[in-house]
Write a structure and sequence with these properties.
Blueprint (H helix, E strand, L loop, with lengths): L1 H13 L10 E2 L2 H11 L2 E7 L5 H11 L2 H7 L3 E7 L9 H14 L6 E5 L5 E5 L5 H27 L3 H13 L5 H7 L1 H10 L7 H24 L2 H14 L4 H17 L3 H14 L4 H21 L11
Parallel strand pairs: 1-3, 2-3
Antiparallel strand pairs: 2-4, 4-5
Keywords: Signal
Protein name: Thioredoxin family protein
Organism: Haloferula chungangensis
Amino acid sequence: MKTLLLAACAATLSLGTALAGGEGWTDDFEAAKKQAAAENKDLLIDFTGSDWCGWCIKLNKEVFSHDVFKEGVEDKYVLVELDFPKDKSKLTEETLKQNAKLKEVYQPKGFPTILLADPQGKPYAKTGYQPGGPEKYVAHLNELQESKVARDEAFDAASKAEGVEKAKALVAALGSMKLADATLASSYSDTIEEIKAADPDDETGFVKKIELKEKFAQFETELNKYGQNGDRDAALKLVNETLAEDEFGDPEKQQITFIKAMILAEKKQFDEALTTLDAAKAIAPDSKLGARVDSFKEHISKSQAESKAPKTEEKKDGE
């Protein structure tokens, strides 16, 4: 009876620990970093939605579940799965908190997002689903390793330079990885501080660029909060205040102006919305967003006409 109880407990403890990637993966990030450092490997981090993300499921089925993949990466990477399932019972409370924190750090823009990172957890390359099966995926990862080589060579060059030249070398190191600015800001904050110290007048323009990206991300976060609450007035106030500060470049300014037009349309202030769309297009007529403005104007004009059309009364039974 004692043996049966122990077996039942072991089975219970194992529930929810099976990872979508299968054998060879871990969801313990800190343990993975220690293992990577001890074994002189890098981290392969998979941001996935195991029970809802079609491309994630496809990547697991076509690539990660195959021995060819596991054998191809076993000497180079510790495999880390950061899952964001709809069914939260699949993960422990500790893992849910860990994954949420890491999502804030690495800022994945979609799922699946695959990051390659050094043993300290600093990413140097990003990818996602790739067709072609496990052999082709392993070859793709091998190509991405060149980003780490380029990063480290640039860091080495920076260590031998001073002043603005050092800042330029560090900026080149960060740029070589082709990572999102938000990821760089959170993962390479020490490097950004070095750039600031080496280039206090910001001759490279890099610091201002990063700060504006962070500010725009804060704007989006606050705007989304108002959107979730359905508070259009607060959202419009935020947009107007942000435009009045006039700190962003044309791409961001056009996007914010476009958002303002959409809020005005939702508030049924159609004439003002149409005028604001014209202003958005004028900022950068040839951009992707600028090219879409006319189609949005058509939709808003149609909504405006429908709002002015007289409503027909429903006929009563027998009429």
